[in-house]
């Protein structure tokens, strides 16, 4: 697989890698994954699961050995504090592992990066669990986002899965979760919020959210259910005008094959125009992003990666894979389009291959290395950024104060005061507007 420049490390026996910010439904935060080879097949199945509920891009490469500690002063201080607490704290310490985990979380929190986080062994085990496309939950992607004005960390709905129960409610992307049932989540980690939201299928959970443009908090009850996420949906949207439609839902190990089948089938049907839908797509495998981007862009970089102290590295299009340039394209994005979907969307926009429509994408463009530790816990550490083909860093605000890919044609966001509007209905309207823009290009 391609070398994307991030690593998964373990202090014993093997050294492996992964880039990623993970949201395990319902959440760990939006980000970019490289790969993790726990056994090749197991991880790629995990990648399929993670892509349903998290933003990320995956790939694999060998790491270098971790050098031994050369200065133990900091470790001695941590150990001294740990022992003082164990020996003198007014209440007995029943589980001193919590002290270690708390120290690790404290170090990571000091970085001021909401995407860097720590997973305890059980949490990391859940991340690695093989899951064949089914999971129980509300069907929404959550992430931790820092408010630019207040510097407060908020738990935000990043995107909503159309198959899930949340899509049948008026929950929307960008809603800020302030309570789960009767528990106020302010100050809680994203992982702890996830635990509150998880539960048995068929049971209700009430989310209290704040929505920009709406003065009062909204209480939304969602009945948990089993969710099966599709990788690709496609159809001839307008048989008479030969307009095809492909909705890429995640960049997992089946995405390239299913995208190729969709493109080939629509091409055989005489497709002359394509609405390519990347909305609510949180990402997936990096190699899949390169291959899928190459189905439309025939040369040049699909994306650049840049690590600390390194020059940007181009991941180029695969020659000979692109469809006919005469097939006009419009690509739909929204605030839930993140990571791998931003990579492909950015490649299509920068190359001039497709008109980009919708709303600004998520705009994280940051890479996390997942370092597996000796007790089977792990840290998610931001280590690099992605740059668009024209060297744009989409995590930086533009002159309008917005991050992410900026559409060539903006579509209206859902009215915050129409609290009965279902997100699926709004998305269908967006697809209709994308078709209208494509028809203009085809004249």
Give your account of this protein's structure.
- There is one protein chain.
- This protein has 443 residues and is an alpha+beta fold.
- Among the domains are: 135-228, Pdz3 Domain (Roll), CATH 2.30.42.10; 232-363 and 388-442, 2-enoyl-CoA Hydratase, Chain A, domain 1.
- The chain has nine helices and 21 strands.
- The protein has helices at residues 40-53, 73-88, 97-109, 121-128, 190-197, 255-268, 286-293, 340-350, 423-442; strands at residues 56-58, 117-119, 134-137, 140-146, 153-160, 176-180, 183-184, 204-210, 218-223, 225-228, 232-238, 243-248, 273-277, 283-285, 301-307, 313-316, 328-333, 355-358, 366-372, 378-387, 409-410.
- Strands 4, 5, 6, 7, 8 and 9 form a six-stranded antiparallel beta sheet that branches.
């Amino acid at each position: 697989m391609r070398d994307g420049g991030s690593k998964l490390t373990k202090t014993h026996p093997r050294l492996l890698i992964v880039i990623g910010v993970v949201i395990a439904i319902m959440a760990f935060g939006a980000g970019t994954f490289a790969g993790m080879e726990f056994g090749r097949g197991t991880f790629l199945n995990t990648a399929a699961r993670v892509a349903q509920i998290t933003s990320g891009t995956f790939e694999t490469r060998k790491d270098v050995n971790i050098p031994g500690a050369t200065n133990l002063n900091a470790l001695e201080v941590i150990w001294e504090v740990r022992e003082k607490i164990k020996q003198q704290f007014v209440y007995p310490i029943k589980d001193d592992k919590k002290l270690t985990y708390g120290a690790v979380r404290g170090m990571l929190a000091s970085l001021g990066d909401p995407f860097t986080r720590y997973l305890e062994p059980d949490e990391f085990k859940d991340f690695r669990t093989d899951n064949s496309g089914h999971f129980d939950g509300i069907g929404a992607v959550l992430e931790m986002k820092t408010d630019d004005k207040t510097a407060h960390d908020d738990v935000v709905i990043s995107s909503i899965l159309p198959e899930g129960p949340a899509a049948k409610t008026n929950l929307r992307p960008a809603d800020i979760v302030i309570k789960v049932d009767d528990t106020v989540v302010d100050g809680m980690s994203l992982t702890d919020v996830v635990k509150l939201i998880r539960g048995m299928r068929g049971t209700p959970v009430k989310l209290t959210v704040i929505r920009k443009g709406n003065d009062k908090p909204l209480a939304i009850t969602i009945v948990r259910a089993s969710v099966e996420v599709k990788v690709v949906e496609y159809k001839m949207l307008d048989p008479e005008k030969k307009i095809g439609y492909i909705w890429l839902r995640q960049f997992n190990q089946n995405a390239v094959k299913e995208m190729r089948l969709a493109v080939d089938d629509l091409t055989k049907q005489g497709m002359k125009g394509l609405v390519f839908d990347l909305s609510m797509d949180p990402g997936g495998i990096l190699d899949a992003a390169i291959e899928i981007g190459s189905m439309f862009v025939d040369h040049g970089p699909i994306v650049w990666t840049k690590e600390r102290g390194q020059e940007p590295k181009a991941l180029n299009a695969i020659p000979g894979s692109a469809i006919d340039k005469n097939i006009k394209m419009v690509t739909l994005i929204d605030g839930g389009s993140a990571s791998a979907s931003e990579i492909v969307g950015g490649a299509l926009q920068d190359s001039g291959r497709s008109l980009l429509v919708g709303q600004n994408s998520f705009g994280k463009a940051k890479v996390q290395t997942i370092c597996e530790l000796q007790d089977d816990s792990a840290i998610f550490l931001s280590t690099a950024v992605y740059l668009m083909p024209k060297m744009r860093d989409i995590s930086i605000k533009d002159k309008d104060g917005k991050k992410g890919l900026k559409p060539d044609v903006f579509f209206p966001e859902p009215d915050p005061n129409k609290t009965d509007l279902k997100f699926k209905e709004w998305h269908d309207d967006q697809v209709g507007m994308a078709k209208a823009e494509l028809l203009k290009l085809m004249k």
